[in-house]
Specification:
The structure is a homodimer of 335-residue chains. Chain A is α/β, with parallel strands linked by helices. Chain A has a domain of 160 residues: Isopropylmalate Dehydrogenase, CATH 3.40.718.10. Chain A contains 12 helices and 11 strands. The first copy, chain A, has an 11-stranded mixed β-sheet, with helices on both faces. The first copy, chain A, is globular and about 60 Å long. At the A-B interface, α9 and α10 of A face α9 and α10 of B. Chains A, B: It is found in: Cytoplasm. Chains A, B: Pfam families: FA_synthesis. Chains A, B: Catalyzes the reversible formation of acyl-phosphate (acyl-PO(4)) from acyl-[acyl-carrier-protein] (acyl-ACP). This enzyme utilizes acyl-ACP as fatty acyl donor, but not acyl-CoA. Chains A, B: Keywords: Acyltransferase, Cytoplasm, Lipid biosynthesis, Lipid metabolism, Phospholipid biosynthesis, Phospholipid metabolism, Transferase.
Chain lengths: 335, 335
């Protein structure tokens, strides 16, 4: 299976991205089209000097432009038609690859996907899902930022799409919760109150309202919210994890005994870090597009890029988009 | 100064609450009226057997009913007119105490406050602020749950009220950020886009948009958001902190070396825990009421209750409500 990787985007530059592609080729036998400045990418490949059998799985597709992290998504894709992300989605449109992975400007990636591929039939708003580590199994949160002002129908479709995606994580009959404040029915803002009956009357495995507290408990498979709330959840969690680690480090550095203790417990800390690291969970799938796309964190390591490429291949193998389409149609027919 | 403590509400029962009142009396010389079932409270006081000079600072005011955590706030205050929280706010209305502290049903506490005291002149919606620990100085987030559907004017007033409250934390000229997704002007949902100019044209020290990531950095003093978003921020932070601690513990328990290391680093962990513990920061002030009220977490320790009582006395001493009133009037006159 051929997957396009936007090899120019991300905070660290092409080297980690290419290394991720090579890992995906090595560990999963996937073919990767690196999209970006050909001479530059060729230099990095020469530097990394992969084994010839891996090199056979990698190709370069030239793109002359790059969309920067701080550019306005819609303006950027309009102006930079030969940007790496636009070229990558064009390869998908032409059937030359089966999925696109990018660690670049996520708004621009979504916009490029919608521009090149369009939406699946019946999808009002494509969205971005994210997989969070929890105490038990991972949880899928959707939307995490594509749609800041939502109507109940949008949240309902997020639930349908994220439920279909859950098969990539080997979850069957995923439970779905509606993120709000207070677990009782009828608690929340107007959007939540109007979304509740749509979910309740659907064929989804809807378990009712869940609270912010429940996100990391791992008692629900899919949590839906609008993209404004979802993005704040994502960012506040990242920010808290980072701040807490720094505060703990501060305190440990205050005494030699604590430092020594920390050194002894370091393997446990490393396992903990791996367990909560988003890199382990691949990227954030764009759901609702007529094609498969995955957004990675700008800071993604080569390990995270590898996992995202493998995740993309699983989405294709599991026919997630057909599933979304089928579920949406069957929900439509219930009404 | 006399402060009323709802001595019946909270997850742990009256003992911790009374112990908190005794600590406030001992450490800050504050007088506390314990409101609740008189014989029951008397039994607890006898059991705790405080020194006579402390006992002089404590009195009991009888209330025959209790509002439970899961009761509907507005129904509950309507039905239970002799509940501890209603009686406490009645004491404040009558001028017998200068503030109310409760660790009970926060919706009911807010509703009781509004019912008994009303709002400050010009306040559209009273709200609840919360103080979060961060890498640097604490940050005040408002609203954290009283108002789930807000208009721009409400968020603007939260900014004014939380800025006034910041004097309790010895902050002068507090910086104010608007919680949204993406730091650039114009990023966010419709509510945020419409609130931005109100803050920009005010005399507040408005620094623009902040992201979820910024909450725990400590680079801003006041962050405003609607109560739906704020409550989810609060709950997701609590949930993540709890889940992360459990995951870390799991990993540490896997090896004797890590266990030993942890024991050696334990004082550092304890300092860390104290630094992030909400108990250290007292309770959540109800802002916009024509009187001073503080809500504590249901799980509050006696230490947290003590801090909340002291915080209430500081709000009174600093004339926070007069300040709110003055700021709102002067902002009105600017328009």
């Amino acid at each position: 299976m051929q997957i396009a990787l936007d090899a120019m985007a991300g905070d660290h530059g092409p080297e980690d991205l290419i290394a991720g592609a090579l890992l995906a080729a090595e560990q999963a036998g996937l073919e990767v089209s690196l999209v970006g400045d050909e001479p530059l990418l060729q230099d990095y490949i020469d530097k990394l000097a992969p084994a010839p059998e891996l090199l056979d799985l990698i190709k370069i597709v030239h793109a002359s432009q790059v969309i920067e992290m701080n550019e306005h998504p819609v303006d950027a894709i309009r102006k930079k038609k030969d940007s790496s992300v636009m070229v990558a989605f064009d390869l998908l449109k032409q059937g030359k690859v089966e999925a696109v992975v990018s660690a670049g400007n996520s708004g621009a990636t979504m916009a490029a996907g919608v521009r090149k591929l369009g939406r699946l039939n019946g999808v009002s708003r494509p969205g971005i899902a994210s997989v969070f580590p929890t105490l038990k199994k991972p949880v899928i949160l959707m939307d995490i930022g594509a749609n800041v002002d939502c109507r109940p129908q949008h949240l309902f479709q997020f639930a349908v799409m994220a439920s279909a995606f859950s098969r990539v994580l080997d979850i069957s009959n995923p439970s779905v919760g509606l993120l709000t404040i207070g677990e009782e029915t009828g608690k929340g803002n107007n959007l939540i109150k109007e979304t509740f009956p749509l979910l309740q009357n659907s064929s989804l495995n809807f378990i009712g309202n869940v609270e912010g507290r429940d996100v990391f408990q791992g008692n629900v498979d899919v949590i839906v919210c609008d993209g404004f709330v979802g993005n704040i959840c994502l960012k506040i969690s990242e920010g808290l994890a980072e701040a807490a680690m720094m505060m703990l480090r501060d305190e440990i550095l205050k005494s030699w005994m604590a430092k020594l203790g920390y050194l002894m417990a370091r393997p446990a800390f490393k396992r903990f870090k791996k367990r909560v690291d988003y890199a382990t969970y691949g990227g954030a799938p764009l759901l609702g597009l007529a094609g498969t796309g995955i957004i990675c964190h700008g800071k993604s390591s080569s390990e995270a890029i590898k996992n995202a490429i493998i995740e993309a291949s699983k989405m294709v193998k599991h026919n997630i988009n057909q599933d979304i389409q089928r579920s949406l149609n069957s929900e439509e027919n219930r009404v």
